[in-house]
Amino acid sequence: MTPRQLLLVTYHFPPSAASGSFRLLGFARHLPTSHWQVTVVSPPELPWEPVDAGLSRQVPPETTVCHVPYPKAAPKFLRWAAPYAVWLPRAWRVCRTLADSAHFDAVLTSGPPHSVHWVGLKLKKRFRLPWFADFRDPWVHANPVYRFRGMKRRWWQYWERKVLKYSDAVLANTPGVTNALRTAYPRFAAKMHTLTNGFDPWESAMVRPYGGRSELHLVHAGELYAGRDPRPLLDALARLHSQGNSIHFEILGRNSTTGLELDAEIERRGLCDKVRFRGQLPYQQALDAMAGADVLLLLDSPGRTLGVPAKLYEYFGAGRPILALAEPDSDVAKVLADSGVPYRLAAPRDAGAIADALAELTRIAISNQEAQPPEQFTRAHLTKTLAHMLEGHRIVRAKVRVVRKPVEETV
Questions:
Q1: Do residues 209 and 318 touch, judged by C-beta distance below 8 A?
Q2: Is pLDDT at 30 greater than 60 in this prediction?
Q3: What is the CATH number that goes with domain 4-198+378-398?
Q4: Is CATH 3.40.50.2000 correct for 204-366?
Q5: Residue 15: enclosing H or E segment and its boundaries?
Q6: Dihedral sign, Cα of residue 327, residue 330, residue 332, residue 333
Q7: Is the peptide bond before 112 cis (omega within 30 degrees of 0)?
Q8: I need a surface site. Which of 77, 107, 118, 370 has the fewest CB within 10 A?
Q9: What is the maximum alpha-carbon separation in the chain?
Q10: Cβ(312)–Cβ(297) under 8 Å?
C-alpha cells in the first residue's frame, strides 16, 4: 500500500523540548503504522525555548524534517511586536515549494502559537488540501491563561473564526475545550473533535516502587508558569513534616515566570533540606526521575477548568500515584477519573486538603499499589484515531475533481 502523505507545520518539533513537541513527535512516530508518512516544517529552535538534542533521535527515519530557521536578523521591533509571526513568511515559502513538488494528501497545523494556522489557511486556499487545525490549547474562547482585550481580542477572534470556518477538522486536546468551541461557534460544531495528548508506554523495569524507604519521594516535572503557585503545597509539606512525615520534594524544570522568590519561601518554612530544584533536564532523564518517584505532582493554575497539562499523560506511563492540584470540575479531574491510575485531587490553594491528599497517597505508595498504563491515552492508540480521520477526509477529497493549480489569494 502506497503511504499517504501528511504535511505537518508547527513551531514545536524536536529538537525543541517545549511540551507541544511531544504530541507532534508522537504523530510522526505512529502515523507510519497506519500508512501515513509525515513531512514536518518547523524551526530548529526558538531563541527563548529549551532544546533537547536527544529528542531528534526519536524521529523515525521515514519522517522528512524541513527546519526553517527563526529570523534572528529580522528588525528588533518586528521580533518584539510579533515574535512568532515573523517566522511565518519563511515557513510559507518552504511549504509552497513542497506542495508544488510533492503530492500531499492533507496538511495539519498545530498551535499554540495559533498564528501557525495562517499557513494552513494559505495551503488550503492555494492547493485545496484537506486541512486539520490542531488546538493544543484554547486560542481566544475559553482561554484560561491569556485574557485578550479590545482590538487585540477582536483581531485574534477574527482569525480564530476564519480558521474554524475554512479548516476541514479542528482537533482539541480536551473534551472541555471541544465543548467550549462548539458553544462559541455552533455553526462549525460538527467539524470539532477531541484528540487528547498521550504517552508512550515505559518499560516496567524502569519503575522503582516505594519499597519501604524512610522518606517519600515527591516529583513535579515541568516548568512553573501560568499562575501555578507552589506555596500552598509548601505549606502542606511543612505541616506534614511537623507531624513526623518525611517527604522529599523534587522540581524538574524552569521557574522563570512565577515572579516568586521560591528559595525564600522554602527557607521560611524550614524546608531547605527537603526541596530540590533540578532545572531543565533532557527528556530521558526526566522520565527516569519520574519513574523513581513515589508520588508524582501535577500543579495546575487555580481556577482553570479547561485544558490538561501534557505532563499528566507522561505520568500515566509511570503507573505511580498522582497528586493533582486542580479544580474538581476541571478537565484534569475528568481525565484522572477515566485513567484508572491511583490519584488524589485537591484545590490548588487549599493547603489543608493538599496535606490530607498527600498523606493518603503516602499510604498508597507504601502499599506499592500500581496501575497499568491506560491504553486509551497511549500515543499509538490516539494516532490511529487521527489516521482514521485523515483517511476519511482524503477519501472525500478524492471524490471531488481537484485541480492542483493556484487560485486567487484572499488572505
A1: no
A2: yes
A3: 3.40.50.2000
A4: yes
A5: none
A6: positive
A7: yes
A8: 77
A9: 73
A10: no
